[in-house]
Every structure is written in structure tokens, then in C-alpha cells.
């Protein structure tokens, strides 16, 4: 039996990115459970229609805030996972910088669009 750690940073990953990946995975699990409780268990009729979701978001502003954090954690965790898979291919530092830039662009675009959509659905944007 070895004493190898259950999870550790890969070469090229760095401790900070590894910690963000692990931390975001735990937060995703917790927020997913909270999401199901709030949107499906505690909701008056279980599954909600689009109009009910909009009304629910407008009446309980903590819910879209929770959904926004859920979106950001899922995007970050998934893109760090993609980066981790690409690290297994042992790209050159130059290629890795390009991949990092592309993943950051995708992550920021997806997060900004998702937050914008939440603002539009809740009617907070006017």
C-alpha cells in the first residue's frame, strides 16, 4: 500500500489552480444540493414552469444570486478540468499559454453571458 496523496497538482498546474479546482468541486456539490432543495423540493408544486421560475427569482433574490455563483463555480471547475486533461498531453509552455488564454476567454464569456441572462430573467436590469 502506498502513501500517495489522493489528489495532487500536476506538473504545470500549480498549487493555486489545483486548490481552486478542488474547492470549486466541493462548492458545486453543496450548491447543487441547495439548488435541488430550493427549486424542486421547497417549491410549491415541485417542478416550476418558466413563468414560475421568473416569479420565484423576483420574489426570492437570494436564489438567482445562488444560481450565479453556481454558474461561476461550474464554469471554473469545468475549464480547469479541461486544462488538467490537456496537461496530460504535455504541451509546450507556449502552447499552454495559448490554451490558458483561450480557456480564460471562454470562461469569462460564459460567466458574463450567464450573469447577464440571470439579470434579464429576474428583471433587475430594468
TrEMBL record:
Annotated coiled-coil segments of the chain: none
Transmembrane segments: 15-42, 62-86, 98-119
UniProt main location, coarse: membrane
EC number: 1.3.99.1
SUPFAM superfamilies: Fumarate reductase respiratory complex transmembrane subunits (SSF81343)
GO cellular component annotations of the record: membrane
Keywords: Heme, Iron, Membrane, Metal-binding, Oxidoreductase, Transmembrane, Transmembrane helix
Subcellular location, record wording: Membrane
Protein name: Succinate dehydrogenase membrane subunit
Pfam entry (one): Sdh_cyt
GO molecular function list: metal ion binding; oxidoreductase activity
Species per Swiss-Prot/TrEMBL record: Anaerolinea thermophila (strain DSM 14523 / JCM 11388 / NBRC 100420 / UNI-1)
Enzyme class: oxidoreductase
InterPro entries listed in its UniProt record: SQR/QFR_C/D (IPR034804), SuccDH_FuR_B_TM-su (IPR000701)
Keyword flag Membrane: yes
Position of the signal peptide: none
